[in-house]
Amino acid sequence: MKREILVSSTPQESWVALVEDEQLVEVMLDRPDQDRILGDIFLGRVEAVLPGIQAAFVQIGTEKAGFLHVSDLNVDDEDLDDDNGNNNGDGNSGGRRRRNKKYPPIQDHVQKGQKILVQVTKEPISTKGPRLTAQISLPGRFLVYMPYSSHVGVSRKIEGRDQRSKLRKMAREVLPADSGGIIVRTVSEEVTQKTLEGEFKRLHAVWQKIQRRADSSQPPAVIQREAKLISGIIRDLFSDKFDALRIDNKAVYNEVVNYVKNVDPDLMDRVHLYKGRKPLFDATGVEEEIQQIFQRKVDLKSGGHVVIEPTEALVSIDVNTGRFTGKGKKDPEQTILKTNMDAAREIAKQLRLRDVGGIIVVDFIDMESQENRDKVIHELRTHLGRDRARTKAFEVSSLGLVEMTRQRVRPPLFHSLTDVCSSCGGAGRVYTPATVVRWIERSLRRAATSKEEKRIVVRVHPEVALRVVEEEPDFLRRLRKGTRLELDMRDDPLMRQDEFRLLSGPAETDVTEKYAVV
Questions:
Q1: Which residues make Cβ contacts (< 8 Å) with residue 490, sequence separation at least 6?
Q2: Which one, of 10, 28, 31, lies nearest residue 19 by Cα?
Q3: pTM of the full structure
Q4: Which range (17-31, 318-332, 405-419, 493-507) has the least confidence?
Q5: Which residue has the higher pLDDT, 388 or 307?
Q6: What percentage of the chain exceeds 70 in pLDDT?
Q7: What's the pLDDT at 323?
Q8: Which residue of 26, 159, 193, 284 shows the fewest CB atoms closer than 10 Å?
Q9: Cα–Cα–Cα angle for 360, 364, 365, nearest 5°?
Q10: 148 in helix, strand or coil?
């Protein structure tokens, strides 16, 4: 399987796409205005302790106080054994696998008004505040350092028993007594003890700085920021399992090159600066695939389709045969099985692409045969196994329903890019002015590369024009310089907030469909 990481970055936003066999499988976005706090460490103040649910609310400076469960207090857990020193693979502790353990009452550990050092394991989503843990973990390239633990473990993704034993022994030798715990990460399969020792010393020095900052700060206060999107992806994901890392920004490319040279120079020949005329995501087909992940209906190769409907409580997915009727009408069960198998593969892909989390209910087409139900659930679980997020799918019920859960640590991409639509009373959503401005920018750059345009007038909703005036006053000047187009912008109150038009030349011919991706 050919695997690549594609990075498209501007000062206004950064996109990272994971591509397998030229198919988009995961996409991530980072913008300065989105205030991502996942992995950040705060000095907080306990606002309330609730013995009834064995949890506390901690103010860390966000709009809503963070939620701290008793299972996320500093309890050394020898059962931890994964990539990030928590109970799952992405830094979200949450204590969900330890809920069945017996913990002393939370009121014996924290009191109202107390200062406490916590780390964000889940972003604020909808009406909920961030999820917090007091079990601090500091991820590096090869190790995760857990200063409040005594556990020494190896990533579960390293399967060889001899290799696991060797790495665990090396980890114990680099860890001084009474200095915390560490997890050896997946990329450390061929690492040397000297490398592990060097990274541990660096992470331990970071922890000492965190302690000094916490001692001299008053809550709520930010103590340590997690690495930004691109840095975190390079640190956590980029390894010899990827054939290439392509970056379209020279400054970002230079930063990545410096990092890779220092931590894993063998990967240098896989890092490439993209210099093509077409935008990177256009040239690779990623831009088109990103637009498709916002659609309710997803077509299957067999001719059937699935409909994905997010709701407040859960995400419902419906599977339909559509126009697919099979090769013959005498065996409808085979037609249904074929559609359900295709749907199982597509659903696993869409959950990962859309970063859907929480409770998910899939309504497969009813199957009479238990053997066929088993085939479908096996197919679904097989493809879910490629997901970095923790997932669990239960058996297919007699009604064809599958209940499943997927780890949720941040809002889905769709929610990050959209707002609740005021025009329809909250029944739908519209793209934010910031998102529209970025689409306009990409469309204008696309028009510039065509060499067919000289002058373009951009017509937008007043909210979008206001966003440009207040937040990006140099927008047109910057694009005029970068595209060498004559550009102007006009507001039009009759347009929708998420709509724009590109008008070309003296006649102002509408060329929106030619260059826009929406």
A1: 457, 458, 459, 460, 465
A2: 28
A3: 0.80
A4: 318-332
A5: 307
A6: 91
A7: 65
A8: 159
A9: 160
A10: coil
Between CA 57 and CA 42 the distance in angstroms is 14
Please tell me the distance from the alpha carbon of residue 339 to that of residue 217, in angstroms, as a whole number.
Answer: 58
Residue showing tokens 């505040």 = 129
The answer to whether the CB of 49 falls within 8 A of the CB of 106 is yes
* Displacement of CA 209 from its chain's centroid (Å): 28
CB-based contacts of 79: which residues, under 8 Å, 6+ apart? 97, 98
**Angle made by CA atoms 26, 29, 30, in degrees to the nearest 5:** 150
Q: What is the pLDDT of residue 303?
A: 85
* Phi, psi torsion values for 46, nearest 5 degrees: -70, 120
- Token pair for 503: 């008008």
Paired with 418 in beta bridges are 431
Name the packing angle between helices 193-215 and 161-174 (round to 10°): 50
Burial of 299 (0-12, 13-18, 19+ CB in 10 A): middle
Collapsed DSSP state (helix, strand, coil) of residue 389:
coil
Radius of gyration of the chain (CA): 25
Q: Are 378 and 393 in contact (CB under 8 A)?
A: no
Q: What is the pLDDT of residues 431-470, one digit of tens each?
A: 889 999 999 999 999 999 999 999 999 999 999 999 999 9
The C-alpha atoms of residue 146 and residue 86 are separated, in whole angstroms, by 9
* Distance from C-alpha of 401 to C-alpha of 359, rounded to nearest angstrom: 13
